[in-house]
Design a protein that fits this description.
Blueprint: E1 6-13, E2 16-21, E3 24-29, E4 42-43, E5 51-54, H1 58-70, H2 73-90, H3 98-115, H4 124-130, H5 132-149, H6 156-169, H7 174-195, H8 204-221, H9 231-237, H10 239-256, H11 262-279
Antiparallel strand pairs: 1-2, 1-4, 2-3, 3-5
Length: about 280
């Protein structure tokens, strides 16, 4: 990495240090780089630095400073180690907001745990399927937090952490990523209630439908209208199922202001019909 000098602002643990370099704040991660140092020291030997994150945005830098004053430094330190691991595992650069949102979330999760308050993640299965890479990375973060801080965060937290990772990769707010998962969950509930079937969430048909719903939402938001050359045949051969898919689309438009075009409704009809057919075989 060459010979650089970092001025220490504060160490968070033995492996994570907040520094300045060329008047820019950065977070350094590396084995033992924080051992025995204090604010005002310089880090000249960079051989042990494995990752550096710069906080470029003034707002994010201020938020991180405020967060570091209210969240235990051990939580910030181990979360920053986890963020470096996420970036390495997924081979992706993460939006710098994750340095605020993830330690903030972990801090609150640990407070809830201490108070005996448990929040169930009703979308855990959907998140695990829709965001496989993020979920696997989140599982490692969850294990790192539990082992490193000697706590026992519930498995539901893996899903919440995965949404933070997904949002960071896609430069979204966590609320935006979470709302998509909520829409999909509401759609699944609507289908189950209207066909009077508890869907087998391990089935191939269910997994295919989840995938379609995820990308259908993206296409609809981006005004991408895919052509469905079989639409008239679908309407004719699967009239009841098409009517159900149309009602589902109306619900999504009414509740979330996302409008599915006719072609998407046709493909959704096929997915629902496949589930119905699999139940009859």
């Amino acid at each position: 990495m060459g010979r650089k000098m970092y001025k220490v602002l504060r160490p968070f643990n033995h492996n994570v240090v907040l520094c300045t370099k060329d008047n820019k704040e950065c977070i350094l991660i590396g084995k033992g780089i924080g051992f025995g140092i204090k604010s005002g020291d310089s880090i000249i030997n960079v051989n042990n630095i494995e990752k550096e994150f710069f906080l470029v945005d003034n707002y994010n830098r201020e938020k991180f400073q405020n967060l570091s004053n209210i969240v235990d430094e051990n939580i910030i330190g181990i979360t920053e180690e986890a963020i470096a691991s996420i970036s390495k595992k997924l081979h992706k650069e993460l939006n710098e907001k994750i340095h605020i949102t993830l330690p903030d979330h972990i801090g609150f999760a640990l407070k809830r745990l201490e108070s005996g308050i448990e929040i169930k993640n009703v979308l855990l299965h959907e998140i695990k399927f829709l965001y496989k890479g993020e979920f696997e990375a989140a599982q490692e973060v969850w294990e790192t937090i539990n082992n490193g801080l000697n706590v026992n965060l519930p498995e539901d937290e893996i899903g919440f952490i995965a949404m933070h990772i997904h949002a960071s990769i896609n430069n979204q707010d966590v609320s935006k990523s979470s709302i998509d998962t909520s829409i999909i969950s509401d759609m699944i509930t609507f289908i189950e209630e209207n066909i009077n079937i508890d869907l087998n969430k391990e089935s191939l048909e269910y997994c295919r439908m989840l995938t379609h719903l995820r990308f259908a939402l993206e296409r609809s938001r981006n005004k991408i209208n895919i052509k469905n050359i079989l639409i008239e045949s679908i309407k004719e051969n699967y009239k009841e199922t098409y009517d159900l898919a149309s009602k589902l689309a109306d619900m999504v438009y009414k509740d979330y202001n996302v409008k599915f075009p006719e072609g998407e409704i046709g493909y959704l009809t096929i997915h629902i019909q496949n589930i119905l057919s699999s139940k009859n075989t």
